[in-house]
C-alpha cells in the first residue's frame, strides 16, 4: 500500500510539474441545464405532457417553442396553450402554435415548411402526440389499430425523416440536435389485457422504442441524438379513462413504489435533462418516468 500511495503522489507531482490540471475542468457547467437560443417543436403541445414540456423549455431559456395539435380553439386548443405559455413569468422566449395532424404526411410536410420559412432552424423535436385505445381484445376494431399506428409510429418516423435536414443543420459534434419520442412504459411491459386491454397501444410504444434506437444509429453521425421518454401514469385527457377503469387515482398511487402518480415537474425535469448540454451524449435510450411502477408490473392486469 505504501508503494502504491507513493506512486500516486509522484504521478500528481509529475502532472503538476507539467502543468496538467489535476482538478476536473467542467466546461460551461453554468449552461448545463439551459436551452438559451434553442428552437423546439413539440407535437401534442396543447395540453398534458406536451404542454408541461413546452413550459419547461421556455423556463430553461428556449428562444422559440412551436407547439402543434389538431384543434386550435376551445379549452383544449392550441390558442389557449400559446396564450398561457406567452404569459409565463420571467420567460423571454416565445411560444407559437401551428395546427397540424401529425399522422398525415402532407400536414407534416406543411409543418416542416412553416418552421423553415418562419424560423429557419430547429434544434429539438419532441414527438409527443399519441393515441390510445382500450377494449377487450375481441372488440378492438381495425380502425383503432390504424389510428394508433399511424400517429404513434408512422407519423413519428415521418416527423423524424422530414425534420432531419433542419435538425442536422443545427447540430454540432459537441451539441447535437435532439429528437425525443414520448413512448410509454407500456412499450416495455404488458400492462393491460382483458376488459381494458391496450394491446396495440403497447405494441406501438414498443415500436417507438425501437424506432428511437434505429434513429440513434442512423442520425447520430449527423449530429442528432434520439431517445424515448416512457411515462407511467400522469393525469391527462388521454390517461383519464384508463385511470378511472383501473380504480382511480388513489388506488394507482397506492400501487406505485413512490405512492404517487406523475406530476408536470417529473416530465419537465427529464425533458430538460435530455435536451440541454447535460444530455448531449445520451443516444438511443428509453427513460422510464414512472416512480418504478414498471418493476411491479402485473398488479393492475387483474382488472
Ligand atoms: N398521460 C399518461 O399517463 C401517459 C402515459 C404514458 C404515455 N403517455 C404518452 O404521452 C403522450 C402525450 O399524452 P398525454 O397524456 O399528454 O395526452 P393528452 O393530454 O390527451 O394530449 C394529447 C395531445 O396530442 C394532440 N394530438 C392528438 N392526436 C393528434 C394528431 N393526430 N396530430 C397532432 N396532435 C395530436 C392533442 O391535441 P388535439 O386533440 O387537438 O390534436 C393533445 O395536444 C402520448 O404519446 C401518450 O401515449 C401518456
Q: What is the CA-based Rg, rounded?
A: 22 Å
Ligand inventory: NADP nicotinamide-adenine-dinucleotide phosphate
Give the ordered list of helices and strands. HEHEHEHEHEHEHHHE
Task: State the low-pLDDT regions, or none.
Answer: none
CATH H-tier superfamily: NAD(P)-binding Rossmann-like Domain
On the 0 to 100 scale, the average pLDDT is 94
What is the spatial order of strands in the main beta sheet? Answer: 3-2-1-4-5-6-7
Please report the number of helical segments: 9
Structural class: alpha/beta
Topology-level CATH name: Rossmann fold
Major beta sheet, specifics?
Answer: 7 strands, parallel
Number of domains: 1
| Helix content class | 40-55%
DSSP strand count: 7
End-to-end separation in angstroms reads: 61 Å
- Outline, from the CA principal axes? globular
Strand content: 5-15%
The assigned CATH architecture is 3-Layer(aba) Sandwich
CATH domain class name: Alpha Beta
Keywords: NADP, Oxidoreductase
InterPro entries: NAD(P)-bd_dom_sf, Sc_DH/Rdtase_CS, SDR_fam, Sec_Metab_Biosynth_SDR
Protein name: NAD(P)-binding Rossmann-fold containing protein
Pfam family, one: adh_short_C2
